[in-house]
């Protein structure tokens, strides 16, 4: 067998981190060389000889982790949410000075969720109305979810490309928050409920019809095939890659 890829996990004690640690340990072509959590020194990752680091930490820490490890020549697979155009641009610029290093940032590694986003973007131009509902466990710190944000942005781009106008909405009186967040003109609603893991519905409406696209992650193992695919490929994708769809022939 060829040499195993040496992998570090950041946020290793968290819900996702623990699942990634197990998945890496069970993969015959990967070797877990470091598992670090909050307040750990990232030099552990470098000293362990990690080739790829997987980051499932918190939005306030992830960008700093990425810049520090890019400087050290470590490839990164990032699932942590909270990225925006500006923070992604800073990573892209940094990578221009580090040819050969790859960073893949994806808001969702579940194959079904990536497909749901792609289907929604494809369908968006054919519908007058669209709203997104994301439903998660109540321990999630960010809202809307990174997935819902990514979904709404892609829908907005598809609507703009098709020269669709604003989504119809006659609301002039509402309690704050009643119509959800406005992500580039697409309303996104966030539900937090004990018992849930990660779920998303995209509702598309026309006069007399509705298309509902729904994805459910019932268990965090659903994210692992996508994470492992990214770990295996990120080293041969220098620069910044955003979204697992780029690896699935869906972009
Ligand atoms: N892309 C995807 O497919 C998915 C993305 N996510 C995202 O992944 C992130 C993590 O989710 P989840 O596992 O549920 O969250 P958790 O809160 O369970 O885990 C986060 C872990 O990161 C640790 N941590 C905090 N700061 C640092 C740091 N600077 N360095 C290393 N570790 C740190 C935390 O430690 P402590 O608690 O001590 O602060 C905690 O153990 C979220 O942003 C979530 O939205 C989640 C699921 C799928
Ligand atoms: O916090 C979570 O749990 C999840 N976070 C990601 C997001 O914000 O989109 C991915 C998935 O929805 C689970």
UniProtKB/TrEMBL annotation:
<comment type="pathway">
    <text>Amino-acid biosynthesis; L-lysine biosynthesis via DAP pathway; (S)-tetrahydrodipicolinate from L-aspartate: step 4/4.</text>
</comment>
<dbReference type="InterPro" id="IPR036291">
    <property type="entry name" value="NAD(P)-bd_dom_sf"/>
</dbReference>
<feature type="binding site">
    <location>
        <position position="137"/>
    </location>
    <ligand>
        <name>(S)-2,3,4,5-tetrahydrodipicolinate</name>
    </ligand>
</feature>
<feature type="binding site">
    <location>
        <begin position="146"/>
        <end position="147"/>
    </location>
    <ligand>
        <name>(S)-2,3,4,5-tetrahydrodipicolinate</name>
    </ligand>
</feature>
<dbReference type="Pfam" id="PF05173">
    <property type="entry name" value="DapB_C"/>
</dbReference>
<feature type="domain" description="Dihydrodipicolinate reductase N-terminal">
    <location>
        <begin position="5"/>
        <end position="109"/>
    </location>
</feature>
<keyword id="KW-0520">NAD</keyword>
<keyword id="KW-0560">Oxidoreductase</keyword>
<comment type="function">
    <text>Catalyzes the conversion of 4-hydroxy-tetrahydrodipicolinate (HTPA) to tetrahydrodipicolinate.</text>
</comment>
<feature type="active site" description="Proton donor">
    <location>
        <position position="140"/>
    </location>
</feature>
<dbReference type="InterPro" id="IPR022664">
    <property type="entry name" value="DapB_N_CS"/>
</dbReference>
<dbReference type="GO" id="GO:0008839">
    <property type="term" value="F:4-hydroxy-tetrahydrodipicolinate reductase"/>
</dbReference>
<keyword id="KW-0963">Cytoplasm</keyword>
<keyword id="KW-0220">Diaminopimelate biosynthesis</keyword>
<dbReference type="InterPro" id="IPR022663">
    <property type="entry name" value="DapB_C"/>
</dbReference>
<feature type="domain" description="Dihydrodipicolinate reductase C-terminal">
    <location>
        <begin position="112"/>
        <end position="248"/>
    </location>
</feature>
<feature type="binding site">
    <location>
        <begin position="79"/>
        <end position="81"/>
    </location>
    <ligand>
        <name>NAD(+)</name>
    </ligand>
</feature>
<feature type="active site" description="Proton donor/acceptor">
    <location>
        <position position="136"/>
    </location>
</feature>
<keyword id="KW-0457">Lysine biosynthesis</keyword>
<dbReference type="InterPro" id="IPR023940">
    <property type="entry name" value="DHDPR_bac"/>
</dbReference>
<keyword id="KW-0521">NADP</keyword>
<feature type="binding site">
    <location>
        <begin position="11"/>
        <end position="16"/>
    </location>
    <ligand>
        <name>NAD(+)</name>
    </ligand>
</feature>
<feature type="binding site">
    <location>
        <begin position="106"/>
        <end position="109"/>
    </location>
    <ligand>
        <name>NAD(+)</name>
    </ligand>
</feature>
<dbReference type="Pfam" id="PF01113">
    <property type="entry name" value="DapB_N"/>
</dbReference>
<dbReference type="InterPro" id="IPR000846">
    <property type="entry name" value="DapB_N"/>
</dbReference>
<keyword id="KW-0028">Amino-acid biosynthesis</keyword>
<comment type="similarity">
    <text>Belongs to the DapB family.</text>
</comment>
<protein>
    <recommendedName>
        <fullName>4-hydroxy-tetrahydrodipicolinate reductase</fullName>
        <ecNumber>1.17.1.8</ecNumber>
    </recommendedName>
</protein>
<comment type="subunit">
    <text>Homotetramer.</text>
</comment>
């Amino acid at each position: 067998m060829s040499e195993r890829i040496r992998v570090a996990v950041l946020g290793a004690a968290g819900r996702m981190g623990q699942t990634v640690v197990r998945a890496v340990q069970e993969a015959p072509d990967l070797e877990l060389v470091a598992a670090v959590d909050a307040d750990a020194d990232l030099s552990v990752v470098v000293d362990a000889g990690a080739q790829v680091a997987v980051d499932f930490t918190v939005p306030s820490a992830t960008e700093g982790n990425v810049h520090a490890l890019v400087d050290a020549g470590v490839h990164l697979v990032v699932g942590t949410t909270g990225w925006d155009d500006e923070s992604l641009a800073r990573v892209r610029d940094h990578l221009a000075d580090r040819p050969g290093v790859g960073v893949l940032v994806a808001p969702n590694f579940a194959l079904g969720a990536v497909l749901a986003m792609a289907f929604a973007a494809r369908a968006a131009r054919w519908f007058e109305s669209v709203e997104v509902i994301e439903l998660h466990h109540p321990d999630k710190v960010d809202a809307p979810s990174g997935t819902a944000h990514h979904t709404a942005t892609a829908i907005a781009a598809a609507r703009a490309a098709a020269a669709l106008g604003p989504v119809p909405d006659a609301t002039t009186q509402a309690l704050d928050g009643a119509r959800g967040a406005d992500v580039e003109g697409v309303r996104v609603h966030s539900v937090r409920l004990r018992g849930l893991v990660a779920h998303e519905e995209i509702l598309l409406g026309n006069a007399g019809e509705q298309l509902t696209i729904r994805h459910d992650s019932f268990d965090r193992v659903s994210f692992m095939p996508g994470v492992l695919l990214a770990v295996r490929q990120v080293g041969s994708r220098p620069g910044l890659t955003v979204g697992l769809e780029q690896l699935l022939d869906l972009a």
